Amino acid sequence: MKKLKTAITGIIASVILSGCVTTSEFEQMKADIARLYVESSQLKQDVSELKTRIDKMSSDLTSAVALKEGQLTLLAQTQDYVKELQLLKGRFEENSFQNEKKFKELNDKIAELQAKLNQPAASPEKNELTKPAQETLKDPKAIYDSAHIDMKNKNFASAREKFQEIIKNYPDFELLPNSYFWVGETYYNEKKYEDAILAYEEFLKRYPKHDKAPGALLKEGMAFLELKDKKTAKVVFERVIERYPQSKEAEIAQQKIAEILNSGNSGKKTPTKKTKSKTKSKTKR
């Protein structure tokens, strides 16, 4: 602008000094110079605005590039997460399938036992009939204590009747869950393992979080083991470990699984144990 002003001033001065310009021409020159000033000012403003726009476009472009890079990184991370999720999903579905298969086998076995036990049975023996003394007991706690005395004296049939009486007539009794558990114990002690399994299962369905639940599930597995059904016993022991991993019963279940696996490898040791058990049973009788 300064150079333009200097040039215009020089032109005007030279024209005036030469004396060759008329008044109208001089006025026209003044108008042209004024127009040049306006155009120059407008051009300067346009250049400034253009520079501002270029700076803004450059900033936007930088932000867009950074955003694009961030999106690409996020996309890569998302793809990794999707792959990991698919892998975990596959493992979960595989484990679920195996567990469902095991539990179905266990439920089928229990249903088979239930059907077998639902068949008409012989009339109860006289020593399993309700004793007159039991009819006088109306307090559930007294009946419960009396049942435990029978358990101590190995009178399991009498004890079972008293526990079943509590279950039938005293649904609000605080030790009702224990009564369900002890019914299973009476059967187990009588070596009626099929009945014991069903009794333990009934208890577990009603009270899965009871403090006796780990013991009931462990004894259910032991009952299957006594019935020589090692496959189902192993499934039950695995169930103990899965449901009650911090319990003592879980440790025992782990040992029993190891014994089952070892017995499967040794083969010849099992018949020896069977012979011993038969000898013992004959001696007791």
CATH topology (level 3) name of the largest domain? Serine Threonine Protein Phosphatase 5, Tetratricopeptide repeat
What level of helicity do the residues show? over 70%
How would you sum up the major sheet?
Answer: none
Beta-strand percentage range: under 5%
Chain-wise SSE layout:
Layout lengths: L1 H17 L4 H95 L14 H4 L4 H13 L3 H14 L6 H14 L3 H14 L6 H14 L3 H14 L4 H19 L2 H16 L1
Helix pairs in contact: 2-7, 4-5, 5-6, 6-7, 7-8, 8-9, 8-10, 9-10
Textual characterization of the structure:
- Residues 121-135 and 268-285 have low confidence and may be disordered.
- The chain has 285 residues and is an all-alpha fold.
- It has 2 domains: 2-18 and 25-79; 131-265, Tetratricopeptide repeat domain (Serine Threonine Protein Phosphatase 5, Tetratricopeptide repeat, Alpha Horseshoe), CATH 1.25.40.
- Helix content is 82%, strand content 0%.
- The radius of gyration is 48 Å and the shape is rod-shaped.
- The protein has helices spanning 2-18, 23-117, 132-135, 140-152, 156-169, 176-189, 193-206, 213-226, 230-243, 248-266, 269-284.
- It has 11 helices and no strands.
- Helix 2 (23-117) packs antiparallel against helix 7 and helix 9 (230-243) packs antiparallel against helix 10.
- TPR repeats lie at residues 177-210.
- Residues 138-261 form the Outer membrane lipoprotein BamD-like domain.
- Residues 261-285 are annotated as: Disordered.
- This is Tol-pal system protein YbgF.
- Keywords: Coiled coil, Signal, TPR repeat.
